[in-house]
Amino acid sequence: MFKLGENLKKFRTQNRLTQEQLAEVLKVSPQAVSRWELGTTYPDITLLPIIADYFNVTTDELFGINGEKIQREIDRIIGHKNELHSQGKIAESISYLREKLALFPNSASIAYELAGALYLELCREGSKSADVLKEIVSITERAIKLDKGESYVTFSGKHQLCLAYCMMGETDKAYKIAAEEMPSLWVSREVLLPHVLSGDRETCQLQHNLLTFMNLSILNLHHLSRKMDTLEKSIELLKKAISLAELLTGDDHKFYNERVFKCCLWIARSYCALNKTEEAMDNLELALKYAVMYEERPEQSCYNAFWLEGYTDDRSKISRNSEETLYQHLLIKIAEKPFSVLHNTDRYAAFTEKVRNKQYNRE
Fold it and tell me: 3-class SS at 302?
């Protein structure tokens, strides 16, 4: 573990402390301090900030890590967090990031990632826990302060703060951040980079922009559909969202199959409310189609549309909110009350069996 034992002994002797005296300060045994310095055991992770503070050094200095090594280690930590998120292991990543933030308390990026993981877990649980939201706000504010406007953490952190304040019902604070502290879409990097780049890099950025703006449009259409005064209007808007995905990505939406899946599920739910059971089942069949296409897609694949030629869907870079698959999500949702009008039909029984077996004939 770096040079912890060696540095601990160095700082202790520089401060003219015996092992016994340091042990008394830290409320541990002298034998524990001796083992730390020998490198046979290490202090409890909660003691590291206390030891660093006592010697008036950073935990980085305590471990003897220089700036370049620190950044490499932080990059490795964020990389492992991304790997956990790609597998939907959000709770595991929270424990991991807590441990690493204790080792690197001055890392804005680790603090931001921890707050983000806590927020994802909260959303997955459908919870608005006041204690967790307060922790998210506290850690995010810490990340922004540490970042000093030098990286993505500042604006991403403010975005995260805004969402947390919304969940807390503190809409005035959320509005201040969104309206006064965040830049307009028109001065975003997505708008500016095509003017800066050239060649293949410009093409890739333009493709990225198309998919990003499509994603935002689908999310907005889905949100807007819930504001409609009739279910028929809501269904029409959701169908527009699906048409947009088909227009821009062709017949296989790769990552965005998950977005289309949710649109189909909500359309089916709306048809249930209108007591149109055949239309509801038709859209559940479509939802299963897109679930299969999303879950069974290769680790890396290119989009079919010629204007997206060369643009890759990389599953390892995609975060999942949980380990729950779209098949599991579909089974959970259709078992709920809004779909009860279907529950005693033969078609529904056959459909649930297909979902359990992950069966969908693409032909």
Answer: strand
> Which residues face 314 on adjacent strands?
300
Cα distance between residue 135 and residue 20, in whole Å:
36
**To which H or E segment does residue 290 belong?**
helix 277-295
pLDDT below 50 — which residues of the chain? 1, 362-363
Burial class (CB in 10 A: 0-12, 13-18, 19+), 67: exposed
Phi, psi (deg, nearest 5) at residue 192: -80, -40
C-alpha–C-alpha distance, residues 120 and 94, integer Å: 10
How many residues are recorded in the chain? 363
Indicate the domain borders of the chain. Answer: 4-63, 90-182, 189-356
Domain 90-182 in CATH 1.20.1090.10? The answer is no
CA distance 136 to 332: 28
Q: Which helix (DSSP H) or strand (DSSP E) does residue 286 occupy?
A: helix 277-295
Neighbour count for residue 9 (Cβ, 10 Å): 18
Residue type, 270: S
pTM above 0.90, yes or no: no
Three-class SS of residue 301? strand
250: closest CA among 263, 264, 260? Answer: 260
- Written as one letter, the residue type at 30 is P
- Kindly report, residue by residue over 6-21, the tens digit of the pLDDT: 889 999 998 889 999 9
Yes or no: say if 358 and 326 are a contact pair by the CB < 8 Å rule.
no
Its CATH class, for the domain covering 4-63, is: mainly alpha
Q: How do residues 299-336 score in pLDDT, each as one tens digit?
A: 999 999 999 999 999 988 888 777 889 999 999 999 99
pLDDT tens, residue by residue, 50-77: 998 898 887 777 887 766 778 888 999 9
| Amino acid (one-letter) located at 161 | L
Place of tokens 């078992």: 335
Average pLDDT, the chain: 92
Q: Are 208 and 311 in contact (CB under 8 A)?
A: yes
- Count of alpha carbons within 13 Å of 18, Cβ hemisphere only? 6
